[in-house]
Amino acid sequence: MEKGLLVPDELVISFVFKRLLEPDCAKGFILDGFPRTLNQAKALDEFTKIDLVILLDAPLDVILERALGRLICPRCGAIYHTRWKPPRRSNICDNCGSVLEKREDDNPKVVKQRYEIYLNTFQPIINYYKDRKILVAIDASRSTSDVIKEIERILEEKHLL
Ligand SMILES: [Zn+2]
To answer: Per-residue pLDDT tens for 91-106?
Structure first.
């Protein structure tokens, strides 16, 4: 994971499916970051019925800018951004006063590598869900609150909320 590479399929699939069998998933669930391969997507379809797939779409320059400005509090886990959500005091956590850190894999080389892997592995998955007509693409280069509003609107429209 430090290298920005992905974890083997079978491991992820069994981990996710085991979690989905727990009682709190009986009425529905939202998956974030899964499936990451076509193999996982097909396994998921055999496991359960997927109602909707939301693609949060953003170009590399937007992703780089977001990742490279990200600051994380090592003590309480709060997340900041140098430009979009700066802490009140430079590099100090608002909640607990700890010195903020950058995540080791938030550097241009790893972010670009992750994006390359993303493009190579996700296009077949995107096409797979497009063919099944359950994919909705959202422009995620807008503000977080705009993106959340649109997700809520789509979920309401599809009677999933
Ligand atoms: Zn903190």
So the answer is: 999 999 999 999 888 8
Task: Give the domain 9-69+106-157 fold.
Answer: Rossmann fold (3.40.50)
Ligand 1 geometric centre to CA of 3 (Å): 26
Taking only the tens place, the pLDDT of each residue in 6-23 is 568 888 899 999 999 999
Query: 78: CA distance to ligand 1 center in Å?
Result: 6
CA–centroid distance, residue 56 to ligand 1 (Å)? 28
Look at residues 110, 122, 117, 112 and name the one whose alpha carbon lies nearest to residue 34: 122
Mean pLDDT of the chain: 91
Q: HEC profile for 80-116?
A: EECCCECCCCCCECCCCCCECECCCCCCHHHHHHHHH
Compute, in angstroms, the gap from residue 89 CA to the centroid of ligand 1.
12
